[in-house]
């Protein structure tokens, strides 16, 4: 498997002569709206301390995800705003049907506004995938999609344990210019074991072991932080637009086993691997 992947490679083109159900899913990909969710009704107050949903406003926040995931263990999720949308300070990503529904909590620096941010997640059963964001004035907004996927949290890991140990904590970074904005892509080698997977050799359960804290800055200025659970994919990739300030990009990663990795990368230029 190639080391360097972008989120776009996760989606496959639809071949000619596909089954009718697949064709319908493709046609509906832009309209897979949130569905009624009894799980969310039970979760809502504990997550956002509110009895009613925040408003849906795709100009302020939109969430893109495939209507039917090609691989439930690496479902691409993209969060976007219109150019004139108010700035967001924090965001909680929730996958209603997952064993641990809160996939990640993010804080964003001004350089990421307006937001265009991608991450890959595990989806364990047909589920709403929703984001609840908080604006600078404290107002909340929600966005989401219903994703058809199953088994993502228990899907076998992509590498054997020896390969995991050899590469864990390695990072790659690249920064390119697209349509007048800078696009950063950060990849981190980590199995992000969910605790629901089995070692394919011993058939024993693999204990949960995942990145639970990520801090990304340019110089001293915040790009974003992430506090995560078991739902972020193996070897996570983050792709985001940002306003560069010319300073090096500093990354700090912590996982649930107490490991810490740090790297610094040039702000622009060719991909760099310092690990």
From TrEMBL:
Residue intervals of the Ig-like SoxY domain: 58-153
Signal peptide feature range: 1-21
InterPro entries given in the database record: Fuse-rel_SoxYZ, Ig-like_fold, Ig_E-set, SoxY, SoxY_sf, SoxZ_dom
Keyword annotations from UniProtKB, A to Z: Signal
Domain Sulphur oxidation protein SoxZ residues, every copy: 185-265
Name used for this protein in its record: Quinoprotein dehydrogenase-associated SoxYZ-like carrier
Organism, scientific name: Paracoccus nototheniae
């Amino acid at each position: 498997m190639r080391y360097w992947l972008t989120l776009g490679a996760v989606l496959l083109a639809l071949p000619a002569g596909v089954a009718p159900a697949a064709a319908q899913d493709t046609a509906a990909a832009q309209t897979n709206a949130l569905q009624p969710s009894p799980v969310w009704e039970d979760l809502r107050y504990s997550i956002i301390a509110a009895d009613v949903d925040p408003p849906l406003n795709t100009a302020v926040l939109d969430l893109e995800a495939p209507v039917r995931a090609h691989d439930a263990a690496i479902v691409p999720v993209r969060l976007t705003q219109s150019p004139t949308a108010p700035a967001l300070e924090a965001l909680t990503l929730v996958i209603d049907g997952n064993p641990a529904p809160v996939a990640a909590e993010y804080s964003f620096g001004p350089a990421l506004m307006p937001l265009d941010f991608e991450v890959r997640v595990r989806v364990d059963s047909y589920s709403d995938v929703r984001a609840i964001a908080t604006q600078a004035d404290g107002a909340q907004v929600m966005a989401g999609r219903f994703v058809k996927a199953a088994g993502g949290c228990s899907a076998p890991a992509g590498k054997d344990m020896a390969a995991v140990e050899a590469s864990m904590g390695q990072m790659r970074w690249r920064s390119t210019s697209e349509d007048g904005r800078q696009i950063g892509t950060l990849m981190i080698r980590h199995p992000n074991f969910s605790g629901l997977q089995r070692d394919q050799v011993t058939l024993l359960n693999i204990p949960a072991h995942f990145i639970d804290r990520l801090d990304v800055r340019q110089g001293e200025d915040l790009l974003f932080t992430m506090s995560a659970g078991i739902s972020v994919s193996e070897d996570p990739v983050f792709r985001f637009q940002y306003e560069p300030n010319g300073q090096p990009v500093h990354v700090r990663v912590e996982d649930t086993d107490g490991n810490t990795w740090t790297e610094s990368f040039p702000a622009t230029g060719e991909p760099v691997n310092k690990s």
